[in-house]
Design a protein that fits this description.
804 residues, mainly alpha, 62% helix
Amino acid sequence: MNRSTPDLSSITVRTVAVERLADSAFLTQLVDEALRTYQNTLALSRSALANSVLVTPVLVKDDASPTVEERGHGLRLVLQWAVNQLAPAPPAFPLGVFRPLDDPTWRDPLWWRYNILRHRYLEPLHPDDFVGGGRFTETLLALTGISSADAFFDERNRAIHEVAEWLRRQLLDDAYSGELQQLAIQEALAPVKRHSQAGQLLAMAAIFDDVFAREQLLELARREDIDRAEQVLDDVIAGRFLLTDDGGANLWLSPVLRAYLYARQPTGEMQRRHRLIAARNEAEGRLLPAVRHHQRGGDDGSAARLLLPAAATLFREIQPAVLIDLLQAFNLRQLENGERYAIALLLSDLLHRTGKPEEALAACRQALPAARTAEEQARVYRRIGKLYESRNQQHALRYYQQAIERFAPDAPELAEALKDRGWLYFLRQEWQDAEAELLRALDVMTADARALQGAIYDAMANLYRKTEEPARAVRYAELALALREEEGDLLGVAKSHGNLGLLYRSVGDYAHAIAAYTEAMSTYARIGNQELVAVALLNIGAAFFLSGDVEEAVRRYRASLAISQMLGLALLEIKVQYNLAEAYAALGRPAVASEHWQLGYSLCHQHAFDDQAQDFIELGAALALPLLPSQPMQAASAAPPEALDPEAATVLELAQREHKITAQRLIEVLHVSRATATRRLSALVEQGYLRMEGKGRGVHYRLASEYAAEPPGLIDAATRIEELEARVRQLAPTLHAQFGARAIGVILSPAPPSGLVRLVARFETTPDLEHFFALEQELGDALRFEIDLVPESALDRQSSVRWL
């Protein structure tokens, strides 16, 4: 059998990870195989290279679901590009152009590698050109002047290796994607360049984003007198320049081709097309497309007049980022002052809500010159004051003053400005000024401003909590909660419950505090805010601690710790470590308390939280925590324990996060030798912080507190996530093949009963009971835990899950 046409029945599609492809020897082997099948598109499409990210840049028609032919052609183009890199200069006779046999570069040694790969694989020599009695090798030897067949094959192998290195660089650095993409675009569009009406139709399609209606494109085609527009469109679709759905009513042009075609059309022509489509979308009630096409058609005024009245509704219906992009696309210089002001102010509000204060401030600066009245100026000054609260409080107060001076006595936003300034006084602990501003805000607010009234009541509750007037504080907090419940504001309701929890706790009513915090946590879980769930768990734990139920406090602290570590919330984790140190000391477990103290103190220094570090020093002195578990307890008046050196603290922190560490892991983290890593681990074992497990190459270390120090039932599933994750990853193929399980997760909260691990399974199709219980048994046997498995569809909304 000819080696250039392999038996396709033995070839299977292979998808290979980037890390595997980056192996030089493996990649060279794949390149060799691909070059041998270069003339066979189907065989190329089944190469692992054709099913890798190497061909993604050249799949310009559709990179999500390319055809077999497109993948094969894509790999062929990538190989062409890589072989061309071997040429020491641009060839006088490039690929596709006949190369005369007297071309002097045939015999130039610098061109040998290029010549061999081009004329053996990419453009194989024709048999008519073979030297007498020979084939490829003999003919190329004669043309190149290479001395022998052995030298020829050595040069060929070096050429293939060099091509593989070019592809490896692209794989790792993505440095040549732009070049490859341009080659692919030119090749893809070559047919439509020979058909002017098809090219014109594609240029029209370039004005649409994403999926668009077939009829809209045909309307443009008819207006521009394209003959047989339906037939031309069908031809374009048949060539996969435009993709369509099953019914054929909608079309899609790839973003790569869209950008290329759009950039090469006359600006005036494209704006005219945008205005036509904008008018049609507006007439048919498609607001967002109409706004976009008005903007791109150069008619920002019409776009603003459509968008501004609908902005409040759009904010509730679409992602804020979409609305922000629309607002930022306006050319403000083309708008009248009123529209310019409204657009800039709305943009500032959205940027502020989405956590972009610098951009929000810049939008305010754009709105200010367009303000036409004192009240419009006041609205901008209030927003600037709000944005300055966290950076310069004196500036913020000045901007609030300018806003309040400009608002009319009956202006609806005056109460907002007074509330904001009152809260700033609260933050500055200027209690009398804060109370005066908040009471004045209540006095001037309009009756329908229910959300504002709730915010003011919450501020009053916090103020009276700080001034130790608990009865007034609780009354205002309850008023705020009632208002928010009437309005259906879930997040506001949760925050009100949190405030009530703080108030109940401050007066020693721990049962009501726990109930309020739990209500808040349930709501945070329902809206999917895990950070606030962790805060609520910390507060619940603190209330249990103060009520005397220390073991229950520890359970809640540990649940909070698992979430804060998972989300990378350093400050919250520091607070939890502080509370755990305090709680374990109260339980009479000073070694475990010291361990959490060390971890928290280390985090303070790692993240430069100086105030919290001082809190830890004071806590260590108050609790007389020992430096080492083997040391005797110090007197309460003794100096605080010294922190472990930074490397030891890092080891303990790593042990807590990963629950199992090795010398090799320390080598990676601390950048030390194996001897140093082993010595460090052994020292911590001697000091009682770690315990060693396993033998030989299986030696690893775990925190000593995970053995004897934990009371029964205190280790929940969240503390063993990494161990679970490693085992589930090994089981994944079996779980998917036998049971149809797409994912397995561990339920972090609510906490399971002692000794039980609660897992959740996500299925492609829900299994019957027999298969479900078989999966539960399989997981239990493999994980060596007592588990409780539930399907995702049966999960309580309040549950928090870490998917493994």
